[in-house]
Structures are given as structure tokens and as C-alpha cells.
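The following block was generated as part of the benchmark described in Methods. Ligand: 2-OXO-4-methylpentanoic acid.
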Amino acid sequence: MKIYQEAIEAISKFTMPDNVGFGKVLLPVMASCEYKDGKWGELEITPYKKLELDPTCKVLHYGQEIFEGMKAYNFSGNGPNFFREVDNMDRFNRSAARMAMPGVPKEIFINAVHEVTRLGKNFVPKRSGESLYIRPFMFATECNLGIKPAEEFLFMVIASPVGSYFQGGSLKVLIEREMIRACPGGMGAAKTGGNYAGSLLSAKKVKELGFDQTLWLSATDKDSVEEMSGMNFFAVINGELHTPKITDTILDGITRKSLITLAKDMGITVVEETLSIATLIEAIKKGECSEAFACGTAAILQPISSLHEVSGQAYQIKDEYGPISKRLRETLLGIQERTIEDKFNWVTVLK
Ligand code: COI
């Protein structure tokens, strides 16, 4: 690994605004590593800089790209620490396999994340719910217009001090009954830009209708709940915690699986099965669905106040955190921020 003196100088001159928002303020350093001739080169830590790409660079045409979202915490100044970083790396490499890209070796992935965080350790916001959002990504850099898997790639890590992902309170969610996010055998489980690009037209409609997020349904039956573009979905029905079981059309969320473990540990029954939107709506109408929420690395856990049809029909759930979502959020954040015992060994402290 090569750490450029310029990167150390760039970080020494950096100042962080008090109100960072989400993904708008970037650390002035980055990690990069090239893949060429069938092997990975040296990991480099440099100042953050613009990339120069040939117009035939394959990622610009065929979208061969993947990314991850992970966080470092420094609440109470006892970090920085990471949360389930190996799970992010493993998912990154599963996304790579689906997108015909080479896996990134552990040494390169973890060193890149750690070195960027080490340089930025004084810029991890310290208020609860804030963190350093770390974005590993990889894309095809080979230059020519042939449609075939590229043989040259760039792996990079950038990082952004962040506050809350959502500015407002609980979410109004549109049930998307026209467009489809993913289909069996497709790439819905991969964290690749195309899945997010495909969600943006629905996001535009959601905004025009005055809502906050899209809830995607299955391509197969147009009834099973899948996910929410950048978050997983949960509902509390008759006191049980329901979430769609993971298939190849749903991103296997690390926050999702952590909340499932925490809920079971709290004695809450967790149902990971197909979740029918028709059944969910009936449960809301009967008052059996007492809470719903979205979760993800960026979003943490955000309550859903209501589901909506494009026709204007609304199904009202709860306008605030319910007891289960509140307890789960506080426990998850407590472990991430190291104010609650890490009994599942999810936390790694930067050495
Ligand atoms: C994350 O939660 O890290 C994501 O990648 C989702 C994105 C909407 C920010």
C-alpha cells in the first residue's frame, strides 16, 4: 500500500461543517486499486480528485459497476469502529460475481476502508445517529465499445461525514404497482448502479405525489412485497415482526439481518416469509399492523406512517416510532456507537 504525503496534507487542511447532511461533504482523500492483466495492483491512498475517463470506458455504456455502503462510528470518541465490515466485503464480492467482475481480496478491501477512515478519524461526526459513511465501489475501466465482460477495473473507497439520511419524520410510501425493480434470475440482489437507476422514475413519481419512498412488489405475482430501492421493509403484525424472505430479487441488507437477530434476542417472533401486500393492507385496515419501518445502512431505521396507492387511497399505520421499532433502533445504534454491549461480535475497532 502506498500512502501519498499529499493525502496526509489534504486531510490536515480539511475543515468539516457542523451540519454535514448526507453524502454532500466528502473527505479530501480516497483509496484506489487497479485490476489489469488478471491481477490487482498496489492500493494507493491519494488526495480526493476527479477521474479522467475515456469516452468508451465500458462502465459509461454497459453499467458494469457495484458499490457498498458502510459506516464508521466515533460516538463518545471511543472509535472509530466499524459494524459488520466483513459482511459488507462479502456482499461486495457477491455483487462482483453477479456482474462478471473480479472479487476484491480482503487485504485490499479492508485496508482501503481502514486507511481512509484512519486519515479521516477526526472527521467522524460524534452525535448519536451520525457517522462516517464509507462508499467502496468498483467499475469497468476497459475502453472499447464491445459488449463483453471488461478485463480492467478500478476499485475505490471514498468517505463522507454524514448526519441523518432522512430530514423529515416518518415515511409516506407509494405501493409501486406499475413498474418492477427486479425479476428472478436478474440482478436485484446485487448492489449495482443499474438497480438504483431503474428505481429513479418511480422516485420521481413518488416525489410528484408528495410521498417519500417506493415499495416494490414481485415481478412474478405483483403482490409479494420486496424492498424499497435503498432499504428493506418490515411490518409488525399482531406483535410479530414480518419481513420478506431474501430471494435473488431483494438486496440482503446487513441492517435487516442485524435487526432480525436483535428482535429474536428480545423474544420477538420474526416471520421471514413471502409478505403479500393484499394481506398487509387487510392487517392495516383491521388495526393488526401496528408498526412498519424501512431500514438500511444509510437510513438506519425509519418509521413508515402510511402506504399509498397512486389513486390517492391511503392506509394509515402510525405516525411515529412504535415500541418495537424504537427499541430495535436504539439497540442497533447502541451497539454501533458502543454504548450497549456487542454480544454478537459485530463491532471492529480501528487498530
Ligand atoms: C446504504 O444504505 O448504504 C445504501 O447504499 C442505500 C442508498 C440509498 C444510500
